[in-house]
Amino acid sequence: MENTLVELMSRFIDLTNDEKQGILDAFPIKTFAKNTDLLKEGQISKDAFLVIKGCIRKYSIDNGEEKTSAFYTEFQSAVNFDSLSKKEPSKYYLSCTEDTTVAIINSKKENDLYKKFPRFGEVCRVEM
């Protein structure tokens, strides 16, 4: 699965071995079981998730009823930008609809990667 992330980035730029390792260090790969909540309503988001395999559902609960607003599948990013950037509580859930493998994108590690390899900045921000 780790190679999948490197292969995705390689579609946009040729990578050196150091850059490949930098990607793997900055964006750890993890598999979550079906029904795992990656983000819950009321939590402040710390990470974004790039789906490598599986599916993440974005939903909120309104008067006790679940309202689905999006699904994220392979090579799509699931992120609550308002919560992540403004440190506001999330208004929705991000939940795995099946066993799901993601690259975990943490702002600090991402920015460190951009400092070390500046050419990643534009590619990652457009793709993620």
How would you summarize what this structure contains?
The chain is α+β, with helices and mostly antiparallel strands and about 130 residues long. The chain is built from five helices and eight strands.
Q: How would you describe this protein?
A:
There is one protein chain. This protein has a single domain, classed as Jelly Rolls (Sandwich), CATH 2.60.120. It is of the alpha+beta class and 128 residues long. It has five helices and eight strands. The relative contact order is 0.25. The longest helix has 10 residues, at 17-26. The radius of gyration is 15 Å and the shape is globular. 34% of the residues lie in helices and 33% in strands. A hairpin with a 2-residue loop joins strand 4 and strand 5. The strands form two sheets. Strands 1-8-3-6 form a four-stranded antiparallel sheet. Residues 11-67 form the Cyclic nucleotide-binding domain. This is Cyclic nucleotide-binding domain-containing protein. Pfam families: cNMP_binding (PF00027).
Distance between the termini: 17 Å
Q: If you consult CATH, what is the topology?
A: Jelly Rolls
What is the number of E strands? Answer: 8
* Number of separate structural domains: 1
Oligomer: single chain
Helix/strand/pairing class, anyone?
alpha+beta
